[in-house]
Design a protein that fits this description.
By secondary structure, the protein is mainly α. It has helices at about 1-20, 20-30, 35-64. The chain is elongated and about 55 Å long.
């Protein structure tokens, strides 16, 4: 579980460092599209987290 948390944290940090193009962010923010992008990314992230948690519980059950 610690490995999973470390992996997700490193992926999140690397995503933040790649999103440094402020000019494109300003254009998307002025058009209101940035909120759509944030909503889609958040939905994907939450879906992956739910999937991984459920998969971890199933694997633990099978190990027992």
């Amino acid at each position: 579980m610690k490995l999973l948390i470390t992996l997700l944290f490193s992926l999140f940090c690397s995503t933040l460092t790649m999103a440094q193009n402020e000019e494109m962010a300003d254009v998307m923010r002025s058009n209101g599209k940035i909120y759509v992008v944030v909503a889609v990314i958040a939905t994907i992230f939450v879906g992956l987290m739910i999937f991984l948690i459920r998969m971890d519980k199933k694997v633990q059950k099978l190990e027992e």
